[in-house]
Amino acid sequence: MEQKEATSRKSSSFACRIHEHVKLGPKLSETLKGKLSLGARIIQEGGRGNIFKHIFGMQEGEQLLKASQCYLYTTAGPIAGVLFISTKKVAFCSERPITFSSAAGELVRSPYKVLIPIGKIKEVNEGQNVNNTEQKYLEIVTQDASEFWFMGFLRYEKAFRNLQKAISMSI
Q1: Terminal CA-to-CA distance of the chain, rounded, Å?
Q2: Ordered DSSP codes for 30-49
């Protein structure tokens, strides 16, 4: 009986994490389109590791530790994407292209990307919503005082552990 209850709690907890992850998006239909698009891209490119290599490149000896679906919080709101944690860098790429104005005033569609070399990370802070403890956040502060907030992880603890591992390996 205890094993059945533990399995039920795990399922319930995972379902809650999926619910929290999906509801951060602006619209359910847009969130689902993004997830489907990301899934197709992962299959086409042969896995998340290949996507990471293609978008951000890899240095000799660099290893991808974890790729986590999450949201990057921006002043325009959360952007869904994948956070890649490697032994050399932390990188984020949006699931779908965003539209912005170029210097020439033209509208451009491009993925939203962030790349933070591990050696430039000053600190990593954990946080959670005081009104909803299921909502956990990771804040990365760089040496130049830039702040990056990641939230809506399906597997928050694994992402945090791998981020700490990457930082400790670089010391």
Answers
A1: 46
A2: HHHHHHHHHHHHHHHHTSHH
